[in-house]
Amino acid sequence: MALKIRLARGGSKKRPYYRIVVADARMPRDGRFIEKLGNYNPLLKKDDENRVVIDLERAKHWLDRGAQPTERVARFLGAAGLIEWKHGNNPKKGEPGQKAKERLEEKREKEEAKKAAAAEAAAEAEAPAEEEAAAE
Question: Region (Disordered): which ranges (predicted)?
Answer without folding.
Answer: 85-136
